Amino acid sequence: MATHALSPAVPAYRGGLYEWLTTTDHKKIGIMYVINSFLFFLIGGMFALLVRTELATPGIQIFTNEHVYNESFSIHATVMIFLFIIPMLAGLGNFAVPLMIGAPDMAFPRVNALSFWMLPLGGILLLSGFLTPGGAAAAGWTSYPPLTERLPLSSPGPGQDLWIAAIILIGTSSILGGINFLVTIFKMRAPGMTLFRMPIMVWTILVTSVLVVMATPVITSALVMLYIDRNLGGSFFLPEHGGQAVLYQNVFWFYSHPAVYVMVLPAMGVISEVLPVFSRKPLFGYKAFIFATAGIGALGFSVWAHHMFTTGAVFLPFFSLMTFLIAVPTGVKMFNWIFTLFRGQLTFSTPLIFAIGFLTMFLIGGINGAFSAAVPIDFALQDTYWVVAHLHYVLFGGSVFGMFAGIYYWFPKMTGRMLDEGLGKLHFILMFVGFNLTFFPMHMLGIQGMPRRIADYADPSWNGWNLLATIGGFIIAASMLPFLWNVFISLRNGKVAGDDPWEGNTLEWATSSPPPPYNFDRLPEIRSERPVFDARHGLVGHGGHGGRAEDEAPKALEEGHVDSQGPGRPS
Amino acid sequence: MSTSPRKRPASEALVAGGVVVLLIAIIGLVFWSGAGAQLYPPKPVTDRAREIAGLYDIVFAIAVAIFIAVEGLIVWSILRYRRRPEDIDLPPQTHGNNLVEVLWTAIPTVIVLVLFAMSWSTLNQVDATSVAQGQQPDVRIHAIAGQFQWQFEYLDAQGKHLATQVIPTGDKGGGMAVPVGKKVYVTLDSGDVIHAWYVPHFLFKRDVVPGQQNHFEFTVDTDEAGQTFHGQCAELCGTFHNAMHFDVIAMTPADYDAWLAKLVEKANATPPPPPSGAPVLQLEAKNITFDKKALEVAANQPFVIDLKNDDPSSITHDVEIRQADGTTVLQKQEAIPGGTDRAYQYTPLPAGTYTFICSIHPVANMTGTLTVK
Fold this sequence. Notes:
CATH superfamily of chain A: Cytochrome c oxidase-like, subunit I domain
Number of strands of chain B: 19
Strand order of the largest sheet of chain B: 3-2-1-5-8
Largest interface: A-B, 103 and 98 residues
Order of helices and strands of chain B: HHHEEEEEEEEEEHEEEEEEEEE
Shape of chain B: elongated
Distance between the termini of chain B: 84 Å
Radius of gyration of chain B: 30 Å
Number of helices of chain B: 4
Shape of chain A: globular
CATH class of chain A: Mainly Alpha
Number of helices of chain A: 16
Largest sheet of chain A: none
CATH superfamily of the largest domain in chain B: Cupredoxins -  blue copper proteins
Helix content of chain B: 25-40%
CATH topology of chain A: Cytochrome C Oxidase, Chain A
CATH class of the largest domain in chain B: Mainly Beta
Number of strands of chain A: 0
Oligomer: heterodimer
Structural class of chain A: mainly alpha
CATH architecture of the largest domain in chain B: Sandwich
């Protein structure tokens, strides 16, 4: 089996639009995921700025009426969740997972391309609602019936149907992607890459994929029922015809709570790659971290009704207890991350700075969530701006900071060029300041009584915090400028990265930047979760995780490489 | 990048130190200016609200302690373990420690179990009602939500309907009256979509779900008599969700009884007959749409619009006369629930063009032109 492959005869990325439109290369598809998601991030951000501008002062200012405001926050959330965060992380996974496990590509490259191309189509479907009479969906990203049951002044037009179609399409893309990840991870690992040597990023994608494959069909069923109610005369959720309004919420959140972990776990995976590399230490408690990830995934299926504490139709103690308990594995992760930094040698490159941004902000998102786990406090906080603060500390402070850590970390591997450190730090500072200015005041607004999803507010004492939040929103928007400029100039004139600019641990750093088609000419020996680290420091064969590398006699890495041709190599 | 040790470690230390000083300064400023106090709930005014506020204080204290401890650990690790020029050899490659893993699994588990037990016990007090315990509450109120207005039905202790208060349109001047120091038992009902009954000073909300009655109980503190507490719908319920305000007006029991007697008297009174000879215009509202887009009436004489509300009972309508611009209000009327009708009487208008509109659903379907000539 062992052969010495030749250097790649073709350049990594052949140019030309046709090549990109027809590619089945997981790296190109991953990059397209990232670019597509980033475009939707800009679109979703634009809607957020409209919402923030409207709320800067009391009264209706920039919108012609309240309905357009409702469309704006509904499309903002839908775009950010389904077309930005989930696919952005799936895109990073798409790029990184086959590289990290030493595979030549995903298990089903064509299915992979199909999953990607469904996303822009879903986005176009969703946004085309604005062109229909009645406008786009305006019932929030949750689209609770009976509000969405074609009532006047709620959701009369086809915009809501387009929303349903778009989410089903995007969900199908997720399911296909999840199956692809699962098969890739279980069947395509390089020799030596046992499950407990897989990078944490791969583990988080694995657990995420299980969540996606198990939960997404459930929301699809809710959406199909809603479509039948709206268009074919069904009454699943219409109480006057024997239906049940809260049923939708149970089915919806059975998906949408695990979806929170779909949006956070891969970002945790990114952090778990970045922190060890930039502190020159292994991840503290590798196995504990994996068990915590699996624990979050499992518990994630038993907390959905904490979104429904005020409906009066929930068994409160159970869901309260499970919600409190899910803080435990999350806390385990937090301590493992901190102890990875502890006694390390930290180099403050941009990926590490964004990773630390994740740690500090996600902590707040965990703590303010505990308030809502206490049911009586949730009676005060539910559906107020407190919840808006909480979810943004998790999904922006957590996921978005994490994905930017990933983008800065893997940009050299994707493009062969380094991003500029100064612009990267400017980006971080603007985003960090803007983020906290925008979302911290929402705690005050929420506990003082401002409900979410209102186009206007009567209480003048809410004006100050709202104005501050709006200013912060524009600072976040401004932080995108140094980032975009950074990408632009770095692609043209950036420092050439080389194979391994960060002294990485995992296999993607053992190939060229960008990697050739099918990724590897040769692989280092895989004897721990840090094969490239072992190779760099001449430490192989220390028997996997748990052994102390420095205790072992340094051994010169032999040149006997493992053949990289996996079973799934397309012919 | 990091293959060679950094040249100037001091500048980054300075920046990091500056960030910490800045953070401390911001936190200090927030508390010094009193803005931090707004992280506390508004003054609780019911027995249940005080329970919730007490629980909030405990959770808040634990949250602040955890925040400071963990955030401090992160910041300290960052400052302490910067890579220095002399750091060429690898740091100790610690892979983990089972003892600390067990500790930081077990200790948080204990903390969250304690939090859960406390919140559960508070929940039992907050959710307790006299009716569930087989007793009679002092006052029963039936709150009905519809797009985009509240109605409050006052019932006697046995549940017999006494009178309905449709809250007057506009931000001020109406809502749900309650006697202080009395057990008030509220039943929630929706005729269309999901709403939520939310009063920030009660630290409480409950969804108003169609096809499912929700109940809760509270007792307003006796020293709050004369106070008004703002409330509004907290569950997105359509275009004018943000306009679904109501007030809870706390009264002494004597004032409350007098107020309720007046409401009952008004409900039972026969409306005064329209002035004889005044023209009567028929108008019907169905599916949140007026059946007429144009009405015509003679100038300088009183007239009547007979509004028939054919929507479900939870949906209220009225007919306001506004200037032609559609915003300046000239004559207001009290809204009526679905399934009823009322002859609204208007005072004479000079010749001109006006707008008639439903103030609760100010959309094109419920707007028309009133020509006076």
